[in-house]
Design a protein that fits this description.
With 298 residues, this protein is an alpha/beta fold. It folds into two domains: 132 residues, Response regulator (Rossmann fold, 3-Layer(aba) Sandwich), CATH 3.40.50.2300; 143 residues, Reverse transcriptase/Diguanylate cyclase domain (Alpha-Beta Plaits). It contains ten helices and eleven strands. The chain has a five-stranded parallel beta sheet with strand order 2-1-3-6-7, with helices on both faces.
Length: 298
């Protein structure tokens, strides 16, 4: 906490040149702004590890590091910490690279050697605010209004990020695809409001079944998809069993005039044999319809 009792904004500087790091530290000290606290690492690998621990509010990132060069450096930081705004640091000859970095997601770029205290603080404050506003707009465009889950657009955007992360880390994931059975019959028999309530309850069951870190989405009228991030191929039956148990509890505890049931297909992403997310979804869909044909439903 600073003198005002507010936690300082934690800034992670990823820069391997000691002189440039010193100049940035001096600029921040000259600003005499207690709102910021600076941490310094000199390798991308160390920076990614620190970002994974959480608690960082903004990253100052040199694109020319001993263990990573160019825009790939930015991409790796964005994959590790998508919620952290990034200001890219470039040399005087690399302003074009800085502009490209902004085009693909950095909030700003600063030319090393041309940064004073006022410019540094203003850039950091603007970067944090812009990132917050963009994140809010994205959240609104990626959320299904009825269930509060991700919508189809949000699912595919986050799933593509997860595929890139899985390919880099060599950690796979599961993609369960669930179809709410008999939604048309519920609508016809009890009205569309009751159908909406069935979808809302299905969303609640899915949120109870999967982890908060998983990506849960309503991708169609009665279709739900999940990226189960920490689940491996052997976890498919565990996921199926947990979902079945939670559905049973929902049906037992409610006063509905119908029973919720789903058809489920689960596909596994193997980074040793990568494929587009569309293809993985198609595999899950094929398994879902195999279950529909063969029964029993969950």
């Amino acid at each position: 906490m600073n003198a005002t009792g507010v936690r300082p904004i934690k800034v992670l500087l990823i820069e391997d040149h000691p002189g440039d790091a010193r100049l940035l530290r001096e600029a921040l000290a000259e600003a005499n702004d207690a709102a910021f606290g600076l941490e310094f690492v000199d390798r991308l690998s160390i920076g990614l590890r620190r970002l994974s621990e959480g608690g960082i509010d903004l990253a100052l990132l040199d694109l020319g590091l001993p263990d990573s060069q160019g825009l790939d450096t930015l991409d790796r930081v964005q994959m590790e910490a998508p919620d952290v705004p990034i200001i890219v640091l470039t040399g005087t000859q690399d302003e074009g690279l800085g502009m490209k970095a902004v085009q693909i997601g950095a909030q700003d770029y600063l030319v090393k050697g041309e940064v004073d205290a006022r410019l540094l603080v203003r850039s950091m404050r603007y970067a944090i605010e812009r990132h917050r506003l963009l994140a809010e707009l994205q959240r609104m465009s990626f959320v299904d209004d009825l269930t509060g889950l991700r919508n189809r657009r949000g699912f595919f955007a986050l799933a593509e990020q997860q595929v890139k992360l899985a390919d880099r880390t060599k950690n796979g994931f599961l993609l369960p695809l669930a179809d709410l059975d008999g939604l048309k019959s519920i609508n016809d028999a009890f009205g569309h409001r009751e159908g909406d309530l069935a979808l809302i309850e299905m969303a609640r069951v899915l949120k109870e079944t999967f982890r908060e870190s998983d990506i849960i989405a309503r991708i169609g009228g009665d279709e739900f998809a999940v990226i189960a991030i920490e689940a491996g191929p052997d976890s498919a039956e565990i996921v199926r069993g947990r979902l079945s148990k939670n559905l049973e509890a929902s049906n037992a505890g409610g006063s509905r005039r119908y029973t919720l049931s789903i058809s489920l297909g689960i596909a596994s992403y193997d980074p040793e044999h990568p494929c587009p997310i569309d293809e993985l979804l198609a595999r899950a869909d094929a398994r879902l319809y195999e279950q529909k044909r063969s029964r029993p439903r969950l």
